[in-house]
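User: Need the bound-state model for adenosine-5'-triphosphate:
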Amino acid sequence: MKVYGSGEARVEALAGVDVVIERGQFVMVMGSSGSGKSTCMNILGCLDTPTEGEYRFAGVDVASLDRTQLALLRRNYLGFVFQSFNLLPRTSALENVELPLVYQRVSARKRRDRALEALREVGLADRAEHTPAQLSGGQQQRVAIARALVSRPAILFADEPTGNLDTERSQEIMHLLTTLNRERAITIVMVTHEAELAVAASRVLIFRDGRIIADGPPQQV
Amino acid sequence: MKVYGSGEARVEALAGVDVVIERGQFVMVMGSSGSGKSTCMNILGCLDTPTEGEYRFAGVDVASLDRTQLALLRRNYLGFVFQSFNLLPRTSALENVELPLVYQRVSARKRRDRALEALREVGLADRAEHTPAQLSGGQQQRVAIARALVSRPAILFADEPTGNLDTERSQEIMHLLTTLNRERAITIVMVTHEAELAVAASRVLIFRDGRIIADGPPQQV
Ligand SMILES: Nc1ncnc2c1ncn2[C@@H]1O[C@H](COP(=O)(O)OP(=O)(O)OP(=O)(O)O)[C@@H](O)[C@H]1O
Ligand SMILES: Nc1ncnc2c1ncn2[C@@H]1O[C@H](COP(=O)(O)OP(=O)(O)OP(=O)(O)O)[C@@H](O)[C@H]1O
Ligand SMILES: [Mg+2]
Ligand SMILES: [Mg+2]
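Assistant: Bound-state model below.
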């Protein structure tokens, strides 16, 4: 349950959501614009808290954790691709991708190698020195994906990660994600509005007006 | 022709583009990430200039216009939906949509009515007072579309205007755009990566590595 504002301005972004995500699942989240997908992702990713209700991460009630413990939890276990990328503006693609490794105190040399490898995986090794303003929309989106994956998170939350990518690039990213899910057991929760991508997932959640109205395998849903 | 940087950092964003866009056309622009679509749109929209070559708008060489004349040209004839929306952050949706009418010195009352009507057309009349931070990704995108259309431009440049919208909302926006094109003869140049939207256009341009490699009706291309 997530409510913003009050009185006339009251908005129920989430009106009642009950969901359990299991380790190793690839969950696709779909639904109309404004239906609560990003709000739900932010709560699952420990970036926001519900107005009512509780959220347990690996059996731990996250409301019982203080800010430092939450930051450590996110840093060590979670990767996030935001709907609006959230890259550091005057910083190169390489430095943007290195950032999670800086927080994890990885050595400068290892950071650079792993960040370059992550950029290579999204086809941007030749744009390592460009700042976001010197990159196309789809390139910025791919830098955000590389940054989310470089720390090898246990769970990846990806909010519309292919929204700015042509079909070929989208397929490359989907191939990368399904491989990571299958070979490294990375749990993936991904928002998309493109039905043809949903078949890559084992499970689809459909949101409407702040509720989940369907939950099952892609073919059924 | 559009080149950034030099030496090792040299990037040919546009390597040689020759295109003529006729009044009343609905042109769909497609192509891989980083192929030059947004760069081309910025030049056509008089927001940027080519490194080499010329651009004539209604017979006028835009290089012969000074900054004030260019600003007037854009204000009076052009509408732009940016790939990253570019909304004013601490300003309500209504005020964001009113902005082009402020520049055109429309009265406060008319501005408000027309801005509310534009928000209604994109399904956001009930979000008029929300700031961008209080809107979902797809809602921000629709505010950007409303803002681009409120001044009734002769030409609309829309860079991935449905990238964050579910299928139903995308169809609504496409219906709105095709109606404006047909009934008000608004010329539309739209970037998309979704092939199923291309059939709404009379002409498709496909970019690759800074060049147009295909140009024709949707079925052929
Ligand atoms: N300021 C800049 N400096 C250097 N290179 C740039 C700059 N701006 C854009 N580029 C490069 O120019 C190329 C074309 O960019 P453009 O934004 O036109 O691509 P696009 O077709 O719109 O891509 P997308 O579909 O990802 O939005 C890209 O390879 C990009 O890295
Ligand atoms: N800070 C806020 N204050 C008020 N309302 C908000 C705020 N943030 C989000 N909302 C509202 O909550 C609802 C759900 O937003 P959310 O971002 O979760 O939608 P979404 O499903 O991700 O949509 P989209 O597909 O457009 O990205 C929207 O109607 C939005 O207007
Ligand atoms: Mg969202
Ligand atoms: Mg672009």
